[in-house]
Design a protein that fits this description.
Layout (H helix, E strand, L loop, with lengths): L5 H16 L1 E2 L2 E2 L6 H5 L12 H18 L4 H10 L17 H14 L4 H4 E4 L19 H4 L1 H6 L7 H4 E3 L4 E3 L10 H14 L10 E4 L9 H12 L16 H11 L6 H6 L19 H7 L1 H14 L10 H6 L8 H28 L5 H19 L7 H4 L10
Antiparallel strand pairs: 1-2, 3-6, 4-5
Helix pairs in contact: 3-5, 3-11, 12-17, 14-15, 15-17, 15-18, 17-18
Length: 413
């Protein structure tokens, strides 16, 4: 209901960061990915945690929309009685001498303007009966308000706050307009504006339906807090970003999150730890002991991982997955295979289960000295992927006996 102070937002974001990344002995753990990317929408290449400030501003914008969309409600009439005056031509009224939450709500407009989002431009209306649209001040005919489009006529208008319904009579096949002015137009410019005004509004059909206020940047023109928040999130991205399209609802969040970080090379392999200032005496892969441990080596190049991918490919009955250069290429491979969308989604589940178990086997060797063999890892991959698909998808008819042979083509649409 109120515009949160920036200090409050900053404190809340700090709590969220500490929760995500963790703290140990009063110190921050490594923060692998910029917080701005963590809060960015998934469609913009982020984790999708959401930006608190943008969410707060989006909720403030909803009150602008409600004020315009619901002029007859009691609270709207109270706000109008307190803040409106005949000399104000703003989208929503604001009396600077009156303190309170409404002042905060109107201040949100300036902050959105500084972020490149104009509420005045974005709030659009589909004309119905005209009872919720100000004839001169709202943008209901054309891309500008009639006040700005025809300033000469607005200057002599009798009621500058008139509603569209005040000036129109709806007949069976047409609308008749009766615009009252303090005097008739008396210059060539005023007559020209008068003729253009009538021509413009005659092209707008007024009906008996309710007026519908919406949001221009939404694909369907419908106002929602999510639409405003998404637009604010996009406005903060100053460069082109690549969407991570491999999020899979059939995979648990922790595994989805790990796969995304692995594709960005933001997991705690030894090279990345050294780059972040940690002193590590042995940077070789703990499983093969031959090459420096990088993300690509761990996932794709290590001979242990390669043997796992060969066995996974045989089980799935698909061309060999082994030989991919990096984690992202490996995950995208499933969508190059022929088959239905659900079948390829299941392949993606298996690949993410494999990534997850390769990582766990690496940690077992690094921290416990236990090197799991390929059969043990493959069994874990089969078990995890079966449980994920069985519990998180709506596909019926998948049973363990058939899953062991990956004989599921007939039950996957």
């Amino acid at each position: 209901m109120f515009l949160a102070p920036k200090k409050v937002i900053k404190a809340l974001e700090a709590i969220r960061r500490d929760f995500i990344w963790g703290r140990k002995a009063g110190k921050h753990k490594i923060r692998w990915i910029a917080w701005s990317q963590m809060t960015r929408d998934r469609a913009l290449g982020g984790m999708g945690l959401g930006n608190l400030r943008n969410t707060n501003l989006a909720f403030m914008t909803k009150w602008w929309w409600k004020y315009k969309a619901k002029p007859k409600e009691l609270w709207t009439r109270v706000i109008k009685a307190i803040h409106d005056n005949n000399r104000s031509y703003k989208l929503i009224p604001s009396n600077k001498k009156v303190a309170g939450v409404w002042k905060d709500i109107t201040k949100a407009g300036k902050e959105l303007e500084s972020m490149g989002v104009s509420i005045t431009d974005e709030l659009t209306v589909e004309v119905g009966n005209g009872k919720a649209i100000k004839f001169w001040l709202d943008r209901w005919s054309g891309d500008r308000s009639l006040k700005d489009a025809y300033p000469g006529i607005f200057k002599i208008a009798e009621n500058k706050h008139a509603m569209v319904a005040d000036y129109v009579t709806v007949l069976q096949n047409e609308n008749q307009w009766f615009i009252t002015c303090t005097r008739p137009p008396n210059t060539d410019e005023e007559w020209s504006q008068w003729a253009n005004l009538l021509q413009q509004i005659n092209g707008t059909r007024v009906s008996g339906k309710e007026d519908r206020w919406g949001w221009k940047s939404d694909s369907k023109g419908i106002f929602s807090v999510a639409a405003v928040r998404n637009q604010l999130n996009k406005a903060e991205v100053n460069q082109e970003v690549e969407e991570w399209k491999l999020w899979n609802k059939w995979v648990p969040p922790k595994a989805n999150y790990f796969s995304w970080r692995a594709a960005l090379e933001k997991i705690s392999v030894k090279r990345e730890l050294v780059r972040r200032g940690m002193n590590i005496s042995n940077v070789l892969c703990p499983r093969c002991g031959v090459s420096e441990e990088t993300v690509d080596h761990l996932i794709c190049e290590c001979r242990v991982s390669q043997r796992i991918w060969v066995e996974v490919s045989k089980w799935l009955k698909v061309p060999s997955i082994s030989g991919r250069r990096n984690c992202k290429e490996l995950m995208e491979h499933c969508y190059t295979l022929k088959g239905s969308g659900d079948w390829r989604k299941i392949i993606n589940v298996v690949i993410q289960a494999a990534l997850w178990n390769i990582w766990k086997s690496r940690n077992d060797k690094e921290f416990e000295g236990h090197l799991r063999n390929e059969k043990e890892i493959l069994d874990n991959i089969m078990e995890d992927s079966f449980i994920w698909v069985k519990t998180r998808s709506k596909i019926q008819g998948i049973v363990w006996e058939r899953w062991l042979d990956f004989n599921i083509r007939d039950v996957v649409s």
